[in-house]
Write a structure and sequence with these properties.
The structure is a homodimer. Chain A is an alpha/beta fold. The first copy, chain A, folds into two domains: about 15-270, 4-Layer Sandwich (L-amino peptidase D-ALA esterase/amidase); about 275-400, Roll (Ubiquitin-like (UB roll)). Chain A is built from eleven helices and 18 strands. Chain A has helices spanning about 55-65, 85-100, 125-130, 140-150, 200-215, 250-270, 290-300, 300-310, 315-325, 355-365, 390-395, and strands at about 15-20, 35-40, 45-50, 70-80, 110-115, 155-165, 170-175, 190-195, 200, 220, 230-235, 240, 275-285, 335-340, 340-345, 350, 365-375, 380-385. In chain A, the strands form four sheets. A seven-stranded mixed sheet of chain A has the order 10-18-13-17-14-15-16, with helices on both faces. In chain A, strands 3-11-8-7-6 form a five-stranded mixed sheet, with helices on both faces. In chain A, strand 4 (about 70-80), helix 2 and strand 5 (about 110-115) form a beta-alpha-beta unit. In chain A, helix 2 (about 85-100) runs parallel beside helix 3. The mean pLDDT of chain A is about 90. The interface between A and B is large, with 66 and 66 residues. Chains A, B: Pathway: Amino-acid biosynthesis; L-arginine biosynthesis; L-ornithine and N-acetyl-L-glutamate from L-glutamate and N(2)-acetyl-L-ornithine (cyclic): step 1/1; Amino-acid biosynthesis; L-arginine biosynthesis; N(2)-acetyl-L-ornithine from L-glutamate: step 1/4.
């Protein structure tokens, strides 16, 4: 069902970053569901994590271990969330075994989990597989890792970028997973990005947070913020050194943002049951927060999402969703709505020249833009979302069966 | 698809309140889609209206005409919302014709519309029908009116109550419509309640606002606040006089609240595509606003709603939704979750004695309670909601076709 999304053909290896994958039958047997990323000594790691108050055990552990991190251990099929103290102990045990296999200290391994909430990890199957992961490491393992971390995803997600730093090439490669419970809040489901550049941890952290705002923090599938969201950036220190004072820093941040946005859009394109990829472009706001509030209110409206599924230009639902957004002193008089280049509403009223067939033609496409101008300022924000289909209901009604 | 809801058998007439209905083929021919309520001279009318910033034309007009109101004119099939100045003029024209038919001034008639947004009212078909409404008035017209105001409703909704005021009987009867775009904000879709008691307008207004908080403002189907929500209370002045200083005032407000809550729950029972009626009982909150925020976050979670549709006790989704609610300094440690009498989570962890089969048995029922204790205070709030089914998607994908 993914909208204009296919598996990445090639993902550029990043010197100093090696992946291993293995099957552990965590939810179902027969496919890789463990992935391990080993970074060269001296690498720096930054991360942003879910703001869900009930963050899962692995999130708490990973967040505390950023400073000396050397390895990232990921499992799909089970989120290890809502599992209390036993779940916390399970995550620690996984890290200990991974550390032993890699010759590291346990607190140099960061755990990540994604999948069903509220069930214990099957350590009896996972531990033997983790013990063997150290033998499988490869710099060309990115695509296999992208597959191993999938849950309801239908397509593995990854992308690469290169940046020239004073004539030297720096590589960025990232992978991501996620297609439901997607409304990242300062983070996303799971995304892992590495670069061979040499970057201090604090600088890498700043670059990652800047990139998030216009990528993973600008998407929503269903408004449900996961307990396990995490987006990690790793700099292996094998290529050119970079810092915010360098002329090329903006180029690097732009490439990181661009890469993260491609991964974030891939998550929406592969949203559970999605048949449409919709860009919500809100402008004319007093500030960006206001623009984002309107964009997310529309993105979360079940009535707008079902109209998009139907390809029905029922713009009244868009107007109604905009009208209930938390915007103070909001008047309809300045509002304009357009679907791609079809202007529908101007000054709060349907335009005389609006023909429904034009809007229906836009909404028959697999992807298009809903542009909303609030007519009260200069701030703007863009959010990407998907439609609400029978298939979304089926996937989430049958998820555990 | 309505959950444990059937048409009211009998609705008690209210002296001084007469309904007329008629077919005007507003959306489809062959059934009544106009309803007119005429009140005796001296009646008082109070109303609460949508807080959607883009309130429809009839809402603006009705809100301004409460003081001298004598008649309420309702149409289904078209919301007359997003129609700009022409839509405003259309609503005024309908009121003028109703006033002429009843021998009233135009500004004594309040218009109400519900249905599709963004289309002009078909005045050519409506006006002739309105002109004849004055001949059809009857005190026994409540059920016919309940049918005439339906849109995607499958069951007409109405209820009656009586209160003894110093040995004299006061009657309250109300009707409501609504099954989608339901997340009332200080009002509801459309509800009309009348009593034969004699009550000053300001007192009636206070009673109505108090009743709303625990009825229509405590339900949600899909989080989409309508542009046309209105709940009206009329006191015809034909029976005992009542004021807040009277001993029986609390009895009257309790009966009004109870009646409004029955109508509000009827809206949720008849929610678009609903197969479950779910009571969200949130307790242990620091204040009621916090309890409501958690209840509505869970009520709006597509993942919780699809799990309810599936009858799947995937309580991790409940926990994840609670965790993303806008509650400051929120810790999982004190949280408890139960489905009816099946305790699942205590102190933020799954209970050792929890058996999934017990929770599955609760969720197999057509209605049950999800109880969430936040463990940080004494405040509580109850919200009623429905599940998210294939049928919800079908109804809203096909609504205009």
């Amino acid at each position: 069902m993914a909208v204009n999304l296919s598996a990445p053909g090639q993902l550029a290896p990043v010197a100093g970053a090696r992946w291993a994958t293995a099957p552990a039958a965590i939810k179902k047997p027969g496919h890789d569901d463990l992935a391990l990323l080993l970074l060269d000594a001296g690498a720096t790691v930054a991360g942003v994590f879910t703001r869900n108050a009930f963050a899962a055990a692995p999130v708490h552990i990973a967040r505390a271990r950023l400073a000396g991190a050397r390895a990232l251990l990921v499992n799909s099929g089970n989120a290890n969330a809502g599992t209390g103290r036993p779940g916390h102990a399970d995550a620690l045990a996984c890290c200990e075994h991974a550390a032993a296999a890699l010759g590291l200290e346990a607190d140099q391994v960061l755990p990540f989990s994604t999948g069903v909430i509220g069930q214990r990890l099957p350590l009896d199957r996972m531990i033997p597989a983790i013990d063997r992961l150290g033998d499988e490491l490869s710099e060309t393992g990115w695509l296999a890792a992208a597959r191993a971390i999938m849950t309801t995803d239908t397509v593995p997600k990854g992308a690469s970028r290169t940046v020239d730093i004073d004539g030297k090439r720096v590589v960025l490669t990232g992978i991501a997973k996620g297609s439901g419970m997607i409304r990242p809040d300062m983070a996303t489901m799971l995304a892992f990005i590495a670069t061979d550049a040499t970057i201090a941890q604090a600088d890498l952290d700043a670059a990652l947070r800047e990139a998030m705002a216009r990528s993973f923090n600008s998407i929503s599938v269903d408004g449900d913020t996961s307990t396990n969201d995490a987006c990690m950036a790793c700099a292996t220190g094998r290529a050119a050194a970079l810092s915010p004072t360098a002329p090329a820093w903006r180029d690097f941040v732009a490439a990181l943002t661009d890469l993260a946005a491609e991964l974030a859009r891939a998550v929406v394109r592969d949203a559970e049951g999605a048949t449409r990829f919709i860009t919500l472009a809100v402008g004319g706001a007093r500030d960006e927060a206001e623009a984002r509030a309107v964009a997310f209110t529309v993105a979360h409206s079940p009535l707008v999402k079902t109209a998009c599924f139907a390809g029905d230009p029922n713009w009244g639902r868009i107007l109604a969703a905009v009208g209930r957004a938390p915007v103070p002193d909001f008047s309809i008089d300045g509002v304009a709505i357009a679907l791609d280049d079809v202007a529908i509403v101007a000054d709060g009223e349907p335009r005389a020249d609006y023909a429904e067939a034009d809007a229906a033609a836009v909404m028959a496409q697999a992807e298009y833009t809903i542009a909303i101008d609030l007519g009260r300022g200069d701030a703007a924000s863009t959010v990407w979302t998907s439609d609400l289909s029978y298939e979304y209901v089926r996937i989430n009604a049958e998820y555990r069966s």
